[in-house]
Amino acid sequence: MLDEHGVDYRYREYREEPFDEDELRSILDLLGLEPHELLRPKESAAAGLDASTPPTRILSAMADDPTLVQRPILTNGQRAILARPADLLIPFLAADGPANRAARRPST
């Protein structure tokens, strides 16, 4: 979808280049979400992690096991979106405009 809209982006293979805790905090701030809201609860590694888990523990778990992070996530440095479903990208890209457009997307 990014290619179709002529977006210049950098694809990030989340298993080879996982987010560290600081990056996750920054992304969560941009998204306006709490750590448990970015967690993939159906992953076996997520067992025992939920909304009642301390946020620092969830962040640590997501940094240690990047499969726990919901994706794809796109950021442009000032805004971010969890693009589930992918149609959410269209208003995000439209608001970004053609100039200075960059995206970062961990794979699915």
Describe the structure.
The chain is α+β, with helices and mostly antiparallel strands. It has a single domain, classed as Glutaredoxin. It has three helices and four strands, in the order βααββαβ. Strands 1-4 form a two-stranded parallel sheet. Strands 2-3 form a two-stranded antiparallel ribbon. The chain is elongated and about 40 Å long. The protein starts with 8 loop residues before the first strand and ends with a strand. The C terminus is likely disordered. This is ArsC family protein. Belongs to the ArsC family.
Write the topology of this structure:
Layout: E1 9-12, H1 21-31, H2 55-64, E2 73-75, E3 80-82, H3 89-96, E4 103-106
Parallel strand pairs: 1-4
Antiparallel strand pairs: 2-3
Query: How would you sum up the major sheet?
Result: 2 strands, parallel
Fourth CATH level, the homologous superfamily: Glutaredoxin
The level-1 CATH class? Alpha Beta
Strand order of the largest sheet: 1-4
Which architecture per CATH? 3-Layer(aba) Sandwich
Task: Give the low-pLDDT segments.
Answer: 98-108
Structural class: alpha+beta
CATH topology: Glutaredoxin
Q: Classify the beta-strand content into a percent band.
A: 5-15%
Count of domains:
1
The portion of residues assigned to helices is 25-40%
* Overall shape: elongated
Number of strands: 4
Calculate the mean pLDDT score and round it. 84
Radius of gyration: 14 Å
